[in-house]
Structures are given as structure tokens and as C-alpha cells.
């Protein structure tokens, strides 16, 4: 099994040990190190390639959010904090997930499942091959071409240099940023609701103060994108 590197940053010793225990049970994660401050982690990242960052938010000297924003390039970030009020800020920063302490095994397992899906999609991803009129398009998946109908696309999710295409049938991944996809005329009817998400309005079932529901799936609304949801 292909392993993906990760580190944990948390200034609380008890929480750090609990996080280590859970991460070490995940077969596809390779824990390279643990750190009690963002400064220590930053020094490690200068000479080591890390794919996943499990990061506390409320830390001395520099918060996890500030540390995450300072990184370039950015690994996948999973925030783990005792402060649920940071949830909106974490999603605004395009974090992969947000977990609340004390960490529950079921919630952590859901996060890990999404991580595994993310890496599998990246391995199979390809560039767009061609568009078929305005109704569908082809993408490359391995050595095959997959046709996708626009009417089946529930939403698009940014995954760094990749974009996940979530449809009513299955998920796909293409080597293209979300911004690049939305700049294509064929995707002009998609509405960006968050730094990491774009949807087709006709799939919206409910609009709340900070999230929308698309076919039973809750997606966050970014503060600066709320105006895009006016009908």
C-alpha cells in the first residue's frame, strides 16, 4: 500500500499522544514526526516533504491558522482544536477538515476515509480531454476516457492542483485547479460558494446562514461568496 507522509502539531501533550495513537492505526499514513509548536514544525517542513498536516489551532507564539496561511506550498491540513468557533475560519482557509477535541474515533475515521478517497482520486486523475457540445465532457481516468454529463454534476471541490467532480453517480478527479475550471466557458453556469466549492444552483435544497444543502450534502458558504447565491 502506498503511504502518505504526515506530521502532528499540538502544544498539549495529552492531546498529542491521543492524536499519535489514532494516526498510527491508519495503514496509509506515515507519521514522520510530532511537534509542540509551529516554529518546530516549520523548520522540519523546510527539509522534509509532508503531505498531511494534523494541526492544533490555539497555540502560543503563532496560531495554527496563522501557521497554515504562512506555508507555501501547503500540505493537506486537518485542524484539530478544542474551539469549535474556529470552524468557519478554518474552512475559509481551505482546510481539508476540522475536528473538535476531545477527538472521537468515529469522527476521525470519517476524516481518514475522505483522505484515502482524496489520494485514490489523485492517482487516477487526468486532464480534460474534450467537451461534447454544452451537455457533457470527457476526462481521462488512467488509460480510459470517462464521459460526464453536466446535469449529473452536484458540485466541484478544490483539492490543491486538482478538482474533485462530485456527481450523482460517482466522484472523479482532474488535474486542474477549481479556478481554472470555472474560467472555462463550459463551466460558466457553476456558482462559487466558497474558496473550495462551486455548485449548480438547481441542485440547492436549502440555504442557511453559513452552509447550503445540495442533494442532502452540506457545503460551507464563504463570507465573500454569499452574494453569489442571490436568485
The CATH architecture of the largest domain is: 3-Layer(aba) Sandwich
CATH class of the largest domain: Alpha Beta
- For the record, the count of structural domains works out to 2
CATH fold name of the largest domain: Rossmann fold
For CATH, the homologous superfamily of the largest domain is named as: Response regulator
Beta-strand segment tally:
16
How many strands, which pairing sense, and closed or not: the largest β-sheet? 5 strands, parallel
Q: Give the proportion of residues in helices.
A: 10-25%
Order of helices and strands: EHEHEHEHEHEEEEEEHEEEEE
The gross shape turns out to be globular
Q: Which regions contain 5 or more consecutive residues with pLDDT less than 50? A: none
Question: What is the quaternary state of this protein?
Answer: single chain
- Helix/strand-derived category reads alpha/beta
Characterization of the model:
The protein is of the alpha/beta class. The chain has two domains: 4-122, Rossmann fold (3-Layer(aba) Sandwich), CATH 3.40.50.2300; 126-229, Beta Barrel (OB fold (Dihydrolipoamide Acetyltransferase, E2P)), CATH 2.40.50. Helices cover 25% and strands 35% of the residues. The chain contains six helices and 16 strands. The chain has helices at residues 13-23, 38-45, 64-70, 87-92, 105-124, 178-182, and strands spanning 4-9, 29-35, 52-55, 76-81, 97-100, 128-132, 136-141, 144-149, 153-159, 162-167, 171-174, 191-194, 197-199, 204-207, 211-214, 217-220. Strands 2-1-3-4-5 form a five-stranded parallel sheet. Strands 11-10-9-13-12 form a five-stranded antiparallel sheet. The chain has a three-stranded antiparallel sheet with strand order 6-7-8, with no helix packed on it.
Amino acid at each position: 500500500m502506498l503511504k502518505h507522509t504526515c506530521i502532528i502539531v499540538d502544544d498539549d501533550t495529552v492531546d498529542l499522544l491521543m492524536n499519535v495513537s489514532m494516526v498510527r492505526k491508519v495503514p496509509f499514513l506515515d507519521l514522520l514526526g510530532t511537534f509542540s509548536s509551529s516554529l518546530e514544525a516549520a523548520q522540519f517542513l523546510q527539509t522534509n516533504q509532508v503531505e498531511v498536516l494534523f494541526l492544533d489551532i490555539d497555540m502560543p507564539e503563532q496560531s495554527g491558522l496563522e501557521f497554515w496561511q504562512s506555508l507555501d506550498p501547503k500540505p493537506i491540513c486537518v485542524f484539530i482544536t478544542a474551539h469549535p468557533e474556529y470552524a468557519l475560519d478554518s474552512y475559509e482557509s481551505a482546510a481539508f477538515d476540522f475536528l473538535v477535541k476531545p477527538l472521537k474515533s468515529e469522527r476521525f475515521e470519517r476524516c481518514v476515509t475522505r483522505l484515502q478517497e482524496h489520494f485514490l482520486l489523485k492517482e487516477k486523475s487526468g486532464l480534460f480531454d474534450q467537451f461534447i457540445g454544452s451537455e457533457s465532457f470527457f476526462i481521462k481516468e488512467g488509460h480510459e476516457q470517462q464521459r460526464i454529463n453536466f446535469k449529473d454534476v452536484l458540485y466541484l471541490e478544490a483539492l490543491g492542483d486538482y478538482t474533485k467532480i462530485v456527481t450523482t453517480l460517482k466522484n472523479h478527479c482532474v488535474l486542474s485547479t477549481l479556478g481554472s475550471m470555472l474560467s472555462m466557458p463550459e463551466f460558466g453556469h457553476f456558482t462559487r460558494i466558497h474558496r473550495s466549492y462551486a455548485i449548480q444552483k438547481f441542485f440547492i435544497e436549502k440555504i442557511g446562514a453559513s452552509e447550503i444543502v445540495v442533494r442532502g450534502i452540506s457545503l460551507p458558504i464563504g463570507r465573500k461568496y454569499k452574494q453569489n447565491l442571490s436568485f
